[in-house]
């Protein structure tokens, strides 16, 4: 009995460990850069500590070694932008706080030895209190939070570190040089050895989010009306892959990720196709518009449970333009994703977007024609709602189109076609600016003058046609 | 000319500074705890640094003082929970890494003086790499991220700090005692002097988010059908306050805040009405359901631009039950907010929720009756859509009701009524658990078996009636 119990608990143990190993493996497989990052950090720390360990004049680790290792541990982040942000913040804050600390010590020394500690205490108290409060200012919190922290630390250390100015200068010099060594090691390794660019991640995130929205819209018509799936969605196994119906949900929660990536991207030097002043803010605008579209899709999703049997005359007639509207909106988004992915301008007037708008008119006409006579109201209400939400989604897709056109101009995307009429399009692009310093969470909601954009872009396309 | 230019730039300067001061003032006014927090941090740092500054055996600042000040600067966070989290992480990580470091040193010393640095280097490299990788494991990232960082730091420092074990033990002892002093100062000040509880913040956030959703729903009917506002919304000035129409938007983006607050609340000791094992996870579930409701409201909001003139017979007839449905759903949410706020159980069967459901039936009946004969399709489509989305919102409100009933049971809220039939309600509360360790962002979407809940709770209320 006991041995059976033992062996079962042994197997339990084994299963747990295997499960753990599987999860670790999956983490590494999902993003192999994580493994590379781990080795990069280990390399940096080993390098810095070995320099201090092996140098000839070694007499136990001094302050120097401590600060260099500490800097590497704290500054080395996953992306190059984040590492640069922290490194720069640390360097400049140490410099500024060191200078202020020396000044404070000099000022206090004028009061005589008895009053000096009190003056220093008051100075530390006041400066720390105001610096801590400044961390609540949104702009500082966003970009210089770590710098203020280091400022507080260094100032307190320098002020408390001793009476004589000459000693302080030496200390400040030592600390700065070690921090420079540590920081430089981090920055060099993080930029030169398989760099992870936050900007590139943001770019890819926007593309993949566009694709997720597109996949939902492309598949939605087939799902809700129980049609066979669209041709271009290849179903491999017997059970069709329905993941495209839920993938869009991650778009709804990508705000925090997008903002931190854009923030880090701001610190990164130009690299590859991204120049130094790449319009990262425009990516945030596109993110806002995509989430807006996602909210409508979420509302739409509630109707997926109640599949419409295309039994009645009414639903049969509405079904076709609705499916077309949805799948064309999806294709337009895919086209946009492709153009962002390949750094090319989106086509001046998207075929899919036009087909989409035609389908909107068609839906309206069909509805108008079909609503005569007695109808089963419980059947038609959801269909009308779905059609109506789809029309809103088409409006969203149009605003995303305009925002990506703006992006392509700001970031100098390759223009595959001639850009004769291009400048006109932007009159419609009335996407109000995202206020940078605004703390409130409402800032996610760029006021989009949808109607203006819709009518303007229609006018333009009428002119073209 | 020049003086005019000078004075204008002087006024510009003055306006800028005044503007800056106004913004700072607003920051403090919005949350006075920010000012208190700044003074608390300043107090802690001044205390710790003065202890080292004034002690009799002062001979320049040693490692000790550095580590105590450093600990205070880095550990002191806005809420008591976050401070505890960082303090505990720092303490235990230092202990563990110190012990491992001593072990590593002993191990390496067995190989002889020549090979020792190489063995130590390899050990540092391996341990740092695996510790860094472990920071990507979601569970560790969520709760012990800072601990792992400190582990890496302390281990590298101890390993590099010297050959002899006796010296290392002394160093480890010194570092631990100073970290304890710094950490204890932080924790005592943050808990005893005007504490900011993350749990209380989370509780209040949920209440205020419920109220925001409720305000929108209460006012929506009046807005879209251009009715006079509901009686209970007092309009003070001539221009009516429309902020309730946009306030709900902050609910959509509160996921990150809720999660970090719940995470910090986990570390907090029992206080006030919150016991030690308060069900913080249930708050996250409610948050998910509220966002779901918010997404539907966002879809509804798109129709606010096109106000319906209650001109036609059709819209006049649908208007009344729709307005009732919306405002009753709002009142039900207000009631829930009130009950969470006052730590009392929600009423067994909410009057408002019942009126709400009756209004749903009424809308369906009215629509059925009105859809006969020729109608202006462009007018009725948006009305039908609005009614249909409102019905979805009522379903959301029901799920929120069930989730808050669960919360009230788990957190032992005061029960104002007898709870005879209460246990029945929970059979319908099929809110699937939020998977804790799941990294994917999709986790925000608790699968809610809406239909089950709806039908179950209807049954229950039928039994009661």
Automatic annotation (TrEMBL), chains A, B:
<keyword id="KW-0812">Transmembrane</keyword>
<dbReference type="Pfam" id="PF11744">
    <property type="entry name" value="ALMT"/>
</dbReference>
<feature type="transmembrane region" description="Helical">
    <location>
        <begin position="144"/>
        <end position="164"/>
    </location>
</feature>
<comment type="similarity">
    <text>Belongs to the aromatic acid exporter (TC 2.A.85) family.</text>
</comment>
<feature type="transmembrane region" description="Helical">
    <location>
        <begin position="92"/>
        <end position="112"/>
    </location>
</feature>
<dbReference type="GO" id="GO:0034220">
    <property type="term" value="P:monoatomic ion transmembrane transport"/>
</dbReference>
<protein>
    <submittedName>
        <fullName>Aluminum-activated malate transporter</fullName>
    </submittedName>
</protein>
<keyword id="KW-0406">Ion transport</keyword>
<dbReference type="GO" id="GO:0015743">
    <property type="term" value="P:malate transport"/>
</dbReference>
<keyword id="KW-0407">Ion channel</keyword>
<feature type="transmembrane region" description="Helical">
    <location>
        <begin position="176"/>
        <end position="198"/>
    </location>
</feature>
<keyword id="KW-1133">Transmembrane helix</keyword>
<dbReference type="GO" id="GO:0009705">
    <property type="term" value="C:plant-type vacuole membrane"/>
</dbReference>
<feature type="transmembrane region" description="Helical">
    <location>
        <begin position="66"/>
        <end position="85"/>
    </location>
</feature>
<keyword id="KW-0472">Membrane</keyword>
<dbReference type="InterPro" id="IPR020966">
    <property type="entry name" value="ALMT"/>
</dbReference>
<keyword id="KW-0813">Transport</keyword>
<feature type="transmembrane region" description="Helical">
    <location>
        <begin position="35"/>
        <end position="54"/>
    </location>
</feature>
<feature type="transmembrane region" description="Helical">
    <location>
        <begin position="118"/>
        <end position="137"/>
    </location>
</feature>
